[in-house]
Amino acid sequence: MTVMDPGGLSPLERESLGAVTYAALRRAALEGRLGDGPLVQAKVAAMLGTSRAPVRDALRRLEAECLVTCDRRGRYYVKRIDSQELSEVYSLRALVEPQAAAMAIDHVSDADVDRIKTYEREAAEAAGDANLYIELNRRFHFEIYRLSGSLRLNKFIESLWSGIPPVTPLAVPSQLERSVRQHKEIADALAGRDKEAVRKVLNTHVVDAAVALFENLKIKMDPRSMLFH
């Protein structure tokens, strides 16, 4: 009888623990649950029931995503984004995401359309559940961008989404309704292989999200004046 070497499972267990720790901290950061003070690694580890090593690794990953910052003394803080940076991010999103969706039309199959429409419906049905809606909203968008066939463009869009509050549609009821409606329009434009329509609705979708976010954060600036159209 062959005896299994228990040491062979350790790397997988450590990797899984690291992934879970990273996911928990990332979600907490995006949802504003980490506060303004320094993120003491020992305290965070105790709260998550883990050691400091996966917490340290997770914080480094979050720093690379611009979700946290590290000062000269090695202390981590949740990154606060100012209105100028937000406007810059949404300006770029309004440019590149419509183009990615238009590129996807060159590759999209009927099966792809069915899958995207399923994500669209699931997101609409999850509109009352913040965490689930955020996850499904991201899945809907990135499934479309993946079909563009450009890994570099996808990575760039991911970098723009990182560090930006993902709860925009949930913050303003009217924006949530618009977002759900616009998702359907995006899916329909893809189904119709209409590049101009998908560009237009996705640009509007991003601009509306920026306006809602600025209103929710009480930033006294109209982001539409700084967005590229």
Structural write-up:
The chain has two domains: 8-78, Arc Repressor Mutant, subunit A (Orthogonal Bundle); 83-225, Four Helix Bundle (Hemerythrin (Met), subunit A) (Up-down Bundle). 67% of the residues lie in helices and 3% in strands. The protein has helices spanning 10-30, 41-48, 52-64, 83-104, 110-125, 130-146, 151-161, 168-171, 173-191, 195-216; strands spanning 68-70, 76-78. The longest helix has 22 residues, at 83-104. The radius of gyration is 20 Å and the shape is globular. The termini are far apart.
Overall geometry comes to globular
Q: Point out poorly predicted stretches.
A: 1-12
Radius of gyration: 20 Å
Tally of alpha and pi helices: 10
Proportion of beta-strand residues: under 5%
Main sheet strand line-up: 1-2
Task: Write the CATH fold name of the largest domain.
Answer: Four Helix Bundle (Hemerythrin (Met), subunit A)
Fraction of residues in H or I helices: 55-70%
Major beta-sheet overview: 2 strands, antiparallel
CATH level-1 class of the largest domain: Mainly Alpha
What is the CATH H-level superfamily of the largest domain?
A: GntR ligand-binding domain-like
Let me know the average pLDDT. 83
State the end-to-end distance.
Answer: 69 Å
Number of domains: 2
Secondary structure category: mainly alpha
State the order of secondary-structure elements, H for helix, E for strand. HHHEEHHHHHHH
How many strand units? Answer: 2
CATH architecture of the largest domain: Up-down Bundle
